[in-house]
Amino acid sequence: MKKRLLLKLIGLLLIVSVVGYLVKSSGLNFRQALSVSIFLASILGSLFFWDFRLSFAFLGTSILLLFRAIDLENLIKSASLEVILFLAGMMILIGLLKQSGFFAWLVMLILRIKKLTAKKLFISISITSALLACAVDEVTSIIFMVAAIFQICDFFETNPIPFLITSVLSTNIGSTGTVLGNPIGILIAAKSGLTFEDFILQAFPIMLVCLIAAIFLLFFWYRKPLQNLDEKIKEIGSNEIFLKLISVPPDKNLRFSFFIFGLTLFFIALHHRLEILLNLEVNTILLIAPLIFAAFVMLWKYKYAREFVEHDVEWWTLLFFLFLFGQAGTLQYTGAIDFFTKKLSFLFRNNYSLLIGAILWLSAIGSSCLDNVVLVTAFLPIIKSFESIGILIRPLWWALLFGGCLGGNITLVGSTANIVALGILEKEKKLKIKFFEWLKIGIIVSILTILIVWIILILFWKTK
Amino acid sequence: MKIKEIMIRNVKSIPANISVIEAFKILAEMQISGLPVIDENEKLCGMFTEKDILKTILPSYIETVGKFVYVENPKGISAKILELINLKVKDIMRKEVVTVDEDTAICEVARIMITQKIRRIPVVNKENKVIGIVARQDVLRALLKDYIK
Question: Which CATH superfamily is domain B3-143 in?
């Protein structure tokens, strides 16, 4: 074990040193080459040493400061504190919803389908997974969906795997629909100035098209397990027992929690209008809405305030993001990113459709094995730099969002939702999905949905 | 006061290889909720409690999702109870055990119990063999001895 870790570490250092040397030889100065190497070390560190990724981020950032690749003031400016605070605020609100039983109540609605059939269940799992991911986040959403799938599959004594895979794939597709679905959504919104309305008007419809296409494909792919479930439903009887026994009435606490969350969503949805009305900077309301309502939650539930902050906010992950954003900022600060921007713009100088495709497919392939936040963080400064050389960047932001989220469907480690769902499956049912078993359906769904996005982006922006 | 003055010396331990059902019977007979687990060399290798059995039976996501078991007798839980019959103590016991040595002060033991949320702590020697056990009540009896006679 120790030997394996050591070999990985040597491999990482070797790759980082070689890349650092190569970029320096191709014309970058020492600080630029250092910022590239350190950022690469953080990416590889999160790939090879997931549990220690924060150590790599701490060390790397310290080295950047030590060698003056960036100063403290600019590091803090690039650390996107607004994104971190937004995510922390949302995590507190999600903590409240969990505590009040909101998700249990919501998922219960799936189980209450009257005259249940396999087709009805399949469609409702897909749609609920996608919409829940849109409203909260993919990881919270998938835990509750998996719990609901297990309940119903246990009841009908059927294999949960097809429903679980469908739910995960739909969750990843759904996470592209709003700013809230995935951390990369808010990251892109904060850096690009895209508003919640932009997401609803442009990303959400594309997400729906992808979801519908995926449901048809998955329906065909899993037709046999669905037939089996229909037979089981006939044999055991419909879910009348569920209808009788399910009793999680929406109590006062739940209703008020839902009201607070609804109000947060309302302000997030209208943030752009309010910012214009109040003459505020772009995305100010978007970023402070979760903080304001999280503050109310901590006052209302003052006895649990510390628990919300200490347990529901994933500080480990947020700290990693903070340092990673700082490191990506160093790429821009040193000017290293201009080197890559020039190369890319030269490569795709005459073909904008190809540039959209390159970002879409590269981010998808990258996020199939890397954390999509890491990948998007690397792409952000590149896309921003395209603006300075006169390239229309809005479609590129969408390409990055969809690539980063849909690529997560390719492999079973492609997104956090996949890892969480498979972890629960293994623990609860002692069932393991093999890498290629997932890849077969994951890659088909990903190719289909990414192609749809590519075509829509090209068609839409060619008419502009 | 040191823990060796109040610890229970004749400790019943459970071998790691016996079945969970057999171990539960021992707990039920002794009317206690947990016991230390020892390996073939009689060294402490874990702690087995009723909580471990419950945790095995209930879904692992129960703490995250909260109130989520809908039906009265969920089939998933019945299946897990069936699986439990074939499990051994070593499969579900807690392997990270907080221990103390016999020269530990009572107040330190009380501190560990409060901060680590544990009810009983095995007392081990240098070879990691269990030489005693101390429960929350033993600590309290010692601290309040002048008032509960």
Answer: CBS-domain (3.10.580.10)
> Is A144 in Cβ contact with B67 (below 8 Å)?
no
Percent above pLDDT 70 for chain A: 96
CB contacts of B65 in chain A (<8 Å) are: 98, 103-104, 143-144, 147
In this prediction, residue A410 carries a pLDDT of 93
What does the domain layout of chain A look like in residue ranges? Answer: 1-69, 102-247+335-462
Count of alpha carbons within 13 angstroms of residue B85, beta-carbon side: 5
Residue-level pLDDT at A242? 62
**A381-389 contacts: CB < 8 A, separation 24 or more?**
A381/A328, A381/A329, A381/A331, A381/A332, A381/A337, A382/A337, A382/A340, A382/A341, A382/A344, A383/A192, A383/A359, A384/A191, A384/A332, A385/A332, A385/A337, A385/A338, A385/A341, A386/A341, A386/A344, A386/A345, A389/A341, A389/A345
Mapped onto helix, strand or coil, the DSSP state of residue A237 is coil
Beta carbons of B61 and A146 less than 8 Å apart = yes
Say if residue A148's pLDDT is above 90.
Answer: no
The DSSP call for residue A281 is: P
Cα separation of A294 and A290, whole Å? 6
Q: Is the Cα torsion angle A159, A146, A374, A17 positive or negative in sign?
A: negative
What is the rounded average pLDDT of the residues A34-59?
88
pLDDT at A150 > cutoff 80: yes
Q: What would the two tokens of residue A338 be? A: 């201009």
pLDDT digits 0-9 by tens, A284-333: 998 899 999 999 999 999 999 999 999 889 899 899 999 999 998 898 89
Does B82 touch chain A if contact means CB atoms closer than 8 Å? no
In whole angstroms, give the CA distance from residue A103 to residue B67: 10
Bridge partners of B47, per DSSP, are B36, B94
pLDDT digits (tens, 9 = 90+) for B38-84: 999 999 999 999 999 999 998 888 777 766 655 666 777 888 888 88
Nearest-angstrom CA–CA distance, A74 and A79: 9
- Spatial separation of the C-alpha atoms in residues A330 and A39, rounded to whole Å: 9
Burial of A230 (0-12, 13-18, 19+ CB in 10 A): middle
Closest Cα in chain A, distance from residue B60 (Å): 7
Are the CB atoms for A438 and A412 separated by under 8 Å? yes
Chain B interface, mutation test: which of A144, A154, A431, most B Cβ atoms within 10 Å?
A: A154
Q: Which residue ranges make up each domain of chain B?
A: 3-143
Q: Give me chain A's average pLDDT, please.
A: 88
Please report the ipTM that was assigned to this predicted complex.
0.72
Reply yes or no on whether the pLDDT at A104 is more than 80.
Answer: no
Vertex A342 angle, CA A339 and A346, to 5°: 145
Cβ–Cβ of B70/A427 closer than 8 Å? Answer: no
Tell me the C-alpha to C-alpha distance, in Å, between residue A231 and each of A19, A25, A157, A319, B24.
58, 66, 11, 50, 40
Q: Which residues contact A127 (CB under 8 A, 6 or more apart)?
A: A170, A211, A215
Tell me how far apart the alpha carbons of residues B28 and A200 are, in angstroms, rounded to a whole number. Answer: 59
Mutate to test the interface with B, among A150, A153, A251, A257 (most CBs of B within 10 A): A150
